[in-house]
Each structure stands twice: as structure tokens, then as C-alpha cells.
Amino acid sequence: MFYFFRFDTLQLNPIRDSPMQSYLMKMDHERATLELCAVPMPEPGPQQMLVRLHAAGLNRGEFIVGHGLHGHPGTAKAIGMEGAGEVVKLGSEVSGFQLGDRVMGRCPGSFSEFALMDVREAMKMPEGMPWVVAASIPLTFLVVYDMLVLQGHLQSDEWVLINGVSSGVGFAALQMAKALGAKVIGTSGSAEKLSRCASLSLDLGLCTRAPDFYEAVMAATGGKGVNLVINTVGGSVFAENVRCMAFEGRLATVGYVDGVLKAEIDIEALHAKRLTLFGVSNKLRTPAQKAQSVPGFIADVLPLLAQGCIQPLVDRVFPFDQLEAAKAFMESNQQLGKIVLAMPV
Known about the structure:
By secondary structure, the chain is of the alpha/beta class. The protein has eleven helices and 17 strands.
């Protein structure tokens, strides 16, 4: 099994005069700033585990103020949404895990030396998997599992269209769709990234950021259209996506990096083709609702990860004290796959 990632060469210089270091996002009316702060060590509740984090994955949405993930102006909140590490303390009601277990999972405040992980969200890492790879999996691949399997009902031999296939979510969706036997069309503004995706079984790559891919999609699918659309881009391609959908097609909206939050809907197509439009977000879900997909993911997807049928791609790893640089690299749109933050050893 091969894992592909590269490390930034900047030198670690962590602060050591506090119980724990954690990044906070501080909000004002116009922007958010990141600050590395000394904070108390968290104490696990009955169904929580304290995890010494070794790596945490970056996700574009957590840095976008308009996504509403970080509270109101004048507030500060620990940032980070997924990570991997070793269990160092167990809550009083935790079962199935023990001290020293290597775990990965979604957890708030993961850009920290330690974080609390809900036992319902925790997954034991496949043997031999590096920390930085494990940290790139929980949020992204659970989201992909939600939109491809739980809501998208993807079947073998169906066609999938992924807008922004070279993004972290897009690349994970490509890999999982192919593992499920689907055929995949992907769009990206980078011909180089599409070339790298093609080497990993992308059936058709379209180099575009514009809503101009209908003809190519219909030609590839024999005029039938695609069965499932994964829209990581936003409103600028929404109407074109609807045009590309087959009878009883499904469209997942998982992001809006273009900032376009309004789009026209072809009501006639929605009605006649019996289309399904759905969103993929955890913003308003309760912790119990968020955890509902984890057992299915462990049963259906974790074996594919362990066997190497799905190989997460980590583009670059930044040291813990370089979160600002990692964020800037993400915003430059240069990466293919995920960006990960590595904690001090």
C-alpha cells in the first residue's frame, strides 16, 4: 500500500509554557483571525475520550466566515474538525476503547495538542496507517459516504459528475465512487490536477470552472446524463448540473467555494425527470445525528481503506506552528487532495 504526501520543511517552534496549545479563531464583523493560545487541558465527559493528537486535517469550510461555524462577532472558538491520535484518558462510560489505542475521528478543536473525541465518532485506525493519512479521513470521507451511499444511493455502473474533482472532498468522492463501481466525470480548473486524477481512474476530466460542460457530459453518457452530481463548487454551476442529470438523478450540494448562494431551478426538469436535490452538511445536526453514519462507514468503507482499495491523498503536511501557512496554501488552490497539520512529537 502506498500513501502519497509531502512535508513542508519549516522548523517546529512550539510554545511549552502552558498545559496545552490550541488554535482559536477570533471573530469580528469583517474577518476572522487565528491565534495560538495556552488553554487548560480538557476533561472527558462520560462518553468522551481525551486524545493526544498527532495530526489534524484542514477543511476549507471551517475557515470561511460566512459558513457560520464559529459563532458571532466578538467571540472566539477552538478550530479544527478532524484528527488522529492516541487515547490518553477515558470517560467513565466509554467501552470498546482502551488507553493507547490509535484512533481517528471528527472532533471539535482538533488544531490542538489534545482534544476530546465523542466515542460514537471514534474509529480505530487501520494497522500501519500513518497519522497524517488517518487525520485526512474522518470528516471528508464521512461526508462522501453520506452523499454517495446514504443519500446518493449510488449503484455500480452509474455515472457520477464531480464539480471540483481535485479538491479534498472531490478527490475522496472520486476514489469512493470508483471503489463502488461507478463511472466518474470530473471538472477542475487545472489540467495538471486532472491529469493526476486520470491516473487514478477518472473516466473523463473536463478542464473548466465555468458552467459549460453539458455537451461533454451528455456525449460521454450516451445522451442519458449522470445519475449523481457532487457539487463542491456552488451556485455558479448549479443550473448546468441540473441540465446534466439523468432520469431520477440525484444532486448533492456539499459546498459553495464560489460564494454564489443563489441559482435558478428548472422546475420542468425537476418535475419531469423526478430529480432529487439534497444538501450535505452537519451544521444543524445534533451529535447523535452526526454519529449515525459512523457504524455503516466502519463496516462499508474502513475495510476498503485498510485493504488499499481507497488510498487517501495528502498533498502537503505543515508543522503545528504553521497553521496560517497551511491555510494560505489551501486558499491558493494548488493542492490535490488534503492538507494536514502535524503536531509536535
